[in-house]
Amino acid sequence: MANANISFDDKQNVFHLSNRQISYLIQIEEGGLLSHLYFGKKITKYHGSRHYPRLDRGFSPNLAGEPHQTDRSYSKDTLLQEYGGYNTGDFRQAAIKIQGANGAQASDFRFQSFKIVNGKPHLDRLPQAYVLSEDEAKTLIINLVDSTLNAQVSLYYTIYNDRPVVARSTKITNLSQQSINIEKIASMQLDLPASDLEIISLPGAHVRERQMERQIVRQGVTEFSSHRGTSSHHMNPFVVLVTPNTTENEGEAVGVQLVYSGNHQFTIERDYVEQTRVLSGINEDGFDWQLNADDDFQTPEALLVYSDEGLNGMSQAYHHLLRERVARGKYQYAERPIVINNWEATYFDFNAEKIQEILDEASPLGIEMFVLDDGWFGKRDDDDSSLGDWFEYATKLQSGGGLVGLSDKVHEKGMKFGLWFEPEMISKNSDLYRQHPDYILGMPNRDLTPSRDQYVLDFSRPEVVDNIFQQVVNILDNVKIDYIKWDMNRHLTEVYSAALSPERQGEVGHRYMLGVYDLADRLTKRYPDILFEGCSGGGGRFDAGMLYFFPQSWTSDNTDPVERLKIQYGTTLSYPVSSMTAHVSASPNHQTGRQTSLAMRGDVATAGVFGYELNLAKLSLEEKSEIKDQVTFYKQHRSLIQYGNFYRIKSPFKNNETAWEFISEDKTEVLLFNYRVLSTAQPVFTVTKMSHLKSDGIYVDQRTDEHYSGDELMSIGLYNTPIKQADFTSAVRYFKWQAE
Ligand code: DGJ
Question: Which helix (H) or strand (E) holds 547?
Answer without folding.
Answer: helix 544-547
